Every structure is written in structure tokens, then in C-alpha cells.
Amino acid sequence: MSDQLHINKFGPRLKELLLERSLSMRKFSEMTDIDKATISRIINGRRKATPEHLQKFAECLGVPAAELFIAAGYPINQDQKQPNSDIYASLDSIQSILESTGMYDSSFSIENVKQQLEQFHQYSQTEEGKETIYNGFEKKLKKTGSIGPFINHLKEMFETFRLGKATPIELGIIGSALIYFIISVDVIPDYIFPLGYLDDAMAVKLTLNLLTAKV
Predict the structure, then answer these.
(1) 11-49 burial by CB neighbour count: b if 16+ within 10 A, else e?
(2) Does one domain contain both 103 and 178?
């Protein structure tokens, strides 16, 4: 019953957004690359929009993805302080929310993030890795909409990396976090907003811990 209520709530909201932008379903179908019949069923409450649908809708309509996820009935934790909390203690709650979205991967763990960071450590010190960071950081930042308290840490890391104001070991640690943020290898898909950026936040937290240990 709850899902049906959210479906009924989301359809009118999507229709309203299309009307505000003078978009027909046919045009919107072309923009999102989603079948017109599927969009029609979503608007008429005969089908629930998937996370992939919602992400595409948000991008094409220029609205926050969180707004659409909430309207469609997906459980969204909007507590901006969560990424700064103890990452090990919060792992169970993250997994629980992922299960409710149907996107749970049993391999998700802090170790996954650590392994990715270790793999990117040396790469970030190569010319190719540096170019990836210099050219990709601002683009990825715009994509996230500067979401999450970890963003300021990343901006500071980027400036430190760009200016080379750290030891080679510290630059490697910082570079690995920047590469992780830029390259789309997220343990949690980005379109599960804002949960999709929690593993990025974890990567930042782990990196800050390593840097503190080096001081």
C-alpha cells in the first residue's frame, strides 16, 4: 500500500515538472533515452520508477535527485552529518538501506574501499594519473553538486595535490582519494542519492586517518 501511495504521488509530480518545462512525453523520452510507454506508465501510476530512471529524470529536468527519490518512495537518509560519523559503526545501517533499495551487494565493505585506494596510490603519481586528477576533479565536483560534508576535504586535498605542498608519500595518499572520487568505480552506485556518495566519504575519511598517522 505504501509503495502504491508513493507511485501515485510521484506521477503527478513528474507530470508537473514536464508541464513547467513545456516538455512532451515524446521529447522527454528522447532526452532520457527511456521508452515513452514506460514514462507514461510511471506518470499514470502503473509502474514505479527505478533509481536509474530517477537519476536520468533529475539530470534532464535540472532538479535535485533527492527530491525525486523521496517522491518515488525510496528511503533516503538526508542526515548530512552521517559521513563524518564512525564509518565502521555506520556500515550496518548503510547495508540495510541498500537492501531496501534493491541495490545491496554483499561484497560491500570498508575493505573494498581500502583496496581501491591502495590500487590508485601509485597510479596517482604517474603522469596519466596526475592528468586524470587535474582534468577530472572539477567535472566530477559539478556532477555531485558539491554534495556532502566530505566535499570541502576533497577541495583542500586537490589544492594540496595541485600545488605539491606535501611529502611524496602524502601526495600519493591524497592522490588515491582524488582518483577514487573521480573515476566511476563506486562500491555504491552514485544514482542512489545521497547514499551513492557515502563510499566516497569513506574514502576521504580513510585518507584523512592515514594522513594523520603520517604526522
Answers:
(1) bebbeebbeeeebebeebbeebebeeebbebbbebebbb
(2) yes
Q: Fill in the amino acid letter for 123.
A: Y
Are 86 and 65 found together in one domain?
A: no
Note whether 50 and 103 are same-domain residues.
Answer: no
pLDDT at 77: 47
| CA dist., res. 33 & res. 151, Å (int) | 31
Q: Point out the domain boundary residue: 48, 71, 94.
A: 71
**Domain total of the chain:** 2
Report how far residue 174's alpha carbon sits from residue 158's, in angstroms, rounded to the nearest whole number. 8
C-alpha cell at 89: 559503526
DSSP state of 136: H
Mean pLDDT per 10-residue run, the chain (215 residues)? 58 93 93 94 91 86 82 62 44 54 56 85 93 92 65 90 92 93 62 53 81 68
Query: Do residue 13 and residue 118 come from a single domain?
Result: no
- pTM listed for this prediction: 0.53
Distance from C-alpha of 57 to C-alpha of 63, rounded to nearest angstrom? 8
Expressed as residue numbers, the domain containing 121 is 82-214
CB-count burial class (<10 Å; 0-12, 13-18, 19+) for 164: exposed
